[in-house]
Amino acid sequence: MKIIITGATGFIGKNLIKYLNEFHEIIPISIRYQVKQQLVLNSTGIIHLAGKVHDLKKVDNPQDYYEANFELTKQLYDSFLNSSATVFVFLSSVKASADEVGGILIENVQPNPKTHYGKSKLLAENYILNKDLPEGKRVYIMRPTMIYGDGNKGNLNLLYRLVDKGFPWPLGAFENQRSFCSIENLCFVTNEILMNESIPSGIYNLADDGSISTNQLISLIAKSKNKKEIILRLPKKIILFLANIGDIFKLPLNTERLNKLTESYVVSNNKIVTAIGKPLPVKTEEGLMHTFKTYKK
């Protein structure tokens, strides 16, 4: 198949191109929103990764999210509907569904995003779903949870550096469970979607099997470094007080980052695993250990 990929220079794009090159002819394109832009798509399928990611520092203009994640997706999807391409894959996010999860997140919950990032992704999803899909075309909205793998950045790197430098983990009193998504599992699922026409169009959560706590994550990092983990269980009230101070003085530990590091966010992958009829190739602990080894390079 001839596959166009937008956002090909990012972490996900680079890994996806490397994986899919074995099976398809890949055409990476650079694209951004422009008013009244019309696109010509000469391919069998489109994988739309381009967009604006969540800004933890809250310095970005909200309009940027709606242009990059919603308006651009509208233009690309309309072009897909008017093209000979038969499959469209849109990389959304679990944040289009919920910023907080009580229990296990599944696809058919009532979406309630709180951030401009999540809201802009949801607008794009709804635009796609509300359009009549011509016969012979397929469309998939993928909602991954936190993606990890060789070359990723974010809180996982922060935790790794903390353990690597011998600092104790001070948030041991916070018990949580989180789902993660290996970049290898994301690539595997994407290829299955492209190749298997029997997989129904729709929304699919992407996550590894099972979940892991942040304390377990710290232990895995220490194990990858052949070190003994140092986990402190300081009183939650003290940590929350320090995070509030961080909000005021813009310190690395603030309430938003504290929530990111300690919240529970468990995502079900049952729908996509059932649809593809195959197990995911990478387990969370195995994938994380491999990722930590790449950090040593």
The amount of helix comes to 40-55%
CATH topology title of the domain at 2-152 and 180-207: Rossmann fold
Find the count of extended strands (DSSP E, 2+ residues): 10
Q: Would you identify the CATH architecture of the domain at 2-152 and 180-207?
A: 3-Layer(aba) Sandwich
Low-pLDDT parts are none
Shape: globular
The CATH homologous superfamily of the domain at 2-152 and 180-207 is named: NAD(P)-binding Rossmann-like Domain
Strand order of the largest sheet: 2-1-3-4-6-9
Given helix and strand content, the structural type is alpha/beta
How far from one another are the termini?
Answer: 35 Å
Query: For this structure, what is the CATH class of the domain at 2-152 and 180-207?
Result: Alpha Beta
Major β-sheet annotation: 6 strands, parallel
Mean pLDDT: 93
Rg, Cα atoms, Å? 20 Å
User: What pattern of helices and strands is seen along the backbone?
Assistant: EHEEHEEHEEHEHEHHHEHH
Beta-strand content:
5-15%
- Number of helical segments? 10
Account of the protein in words:
By secondary structure, the chain is an alpha/beta fold. It has a domain at 2-152 and 180-207: 3-Layer(aba) Sandwich (Rossmann fold). The protein contains 10 helices and 10 strands. A 6-stranded parallel β-sheet has the order 2-1-3-4-6-9, with helices on both faces. A two-stranded parallel ribbon has the order 5-10. Helix 1 (11-20) links the parallel strand 1 and strand 2. Helix 1 (11-20) crosses helix 5 (183-195), helix 2 (62-81) runs parallel beside helix 3 (116-129) and helix 7 (236-249) crosses helix 8. The model has no long low-confidence stretch (mean pLDDT 93).
